[in-house]
Amino acid sequence: MAGERTPVRPRAEIGASWDRVLRSGIDPEQTTQSVLLEQEEIEHRRRSSVLGEVMPLLSDGLVSIADASQQIMVVTDVEGRVLWRQGHTAILRRADEICLAEGAAWSEEITGTNAIGTALASRAPVQVHSAEHFVRSLHGWTCAAAPVRDPRDGRLMGIVDISGPASTFHPTTLALVGSVARLAESEIRVQHLRSIDRLRSVAAPMLSRLGGRALAVDGNGWLAAVTGMPPVERLPLPKSVQPGRVWLPSLGMCRVEPLPGGWLVQVADGAMDSPPRRVVLDLSLQSGLLVNVVSPVGTWTQRLSPRHAELLYALALHPEGRTASELAEDIFGDPTRTVTVRAEISRLRRHLAEVLAHRPYRFGEGVEVEVIGPEHPGDLLPRSKAPVVVAARGAS
Fold this sequence. Notes:
Layout: H1 12-24, H2 39-48, H3 55-68, E1 72-76, E2 82-87, H4 89-97, H5 108-111, H6 115-122, E3 126-129, E4 141-149, E5 156-165, H7 173-208, E6 214-218, E7 223-227, E8 244-248, E9 252-259, E10 262-267, E11 278-282, E12 290-295, E13 298-303, H8 306-317, H9 324-332, H10 338-352, E14 356-357, E15 362-363, E16 368-372, H11 387-395
Parallel strand pairs: 11-16
Antiparallel strand pairs: 1-2, 1-5, 3-4, 4-5, 6-7, 6-10, 8-9, 9-10, 11-12, 12-13, 14-15
Helix pairs in contact: 3-7, 9-10
């Protein structure tokens, strides 16, 4: 901040955050004040958030500990807006002084490096202590935060955080917050399984009367019942499903009808429509790692693991194709790890068989490929150690 070299190099995740914050123009001497959401908007966001369903669990797991240790629990949405906060009364009053209040904005772009905003940016648990905060007025605070993802589709739902005076720092706080976040995800998963059971009870009698191939799936494509075909764990659905005729990459043309809590999908007779013609690989991290497939009859989206994102990025850089050993060199820096590469490509082709070819591995003939990277190339897949990604970051 003073333009001099720090005596100790910051931790990697803190250094990466400082780089992002510097690029966004945050002043370390600024306040952390932000325009609060109106109470009506806060209530709307609470009702719209799945996190509201697990707030009792989060409270049971963290609030008593936070209160005893003179800290507070904070829960935000995916924008970093504080929707709930509970804990030690005196610390709640002190939190008001730094605008850690309901409706406040705590993304990195607003308040610099902090556990909430940095967990949002990195999509990973993080602890930020004292002078690791970019804004100087937060140097008297310590905080630990973890993201909470929807187990039904992997999307980020928000952040759970423990904050308090710097004197309350404890190295196990991050592990505690991460454990409670995973517990919340488990509870959402249990509730999801119950909803699948309800959908199955409605759909099973209907499917028993249908001829041909048909499935009943929930809104995220998770299978409840099937007839006339082998079961699948999950059916990839377009981002926005509407009743009527829909082209699905794994089944071809289908007829879709709404059910309470899901969809009835009947595979239509006849040949499959034209294959997809365009692939958009979204590595911007705005909504996670995604691949969007655009075909003449519709568009659908598949969420990617970090490893699958690396593989598709490598293929996008080499339209002529890559052998298994070349991909192993790209991803692991070791051309002998072909077995791992072949296994991962096989998993990818379960959902992307219409756009991925092999011998060599490549995007199919005539498929247009677009890569959307982060605003700054140095932020490309920030946790990746794949040589192909590291080289791209270095070229920036």
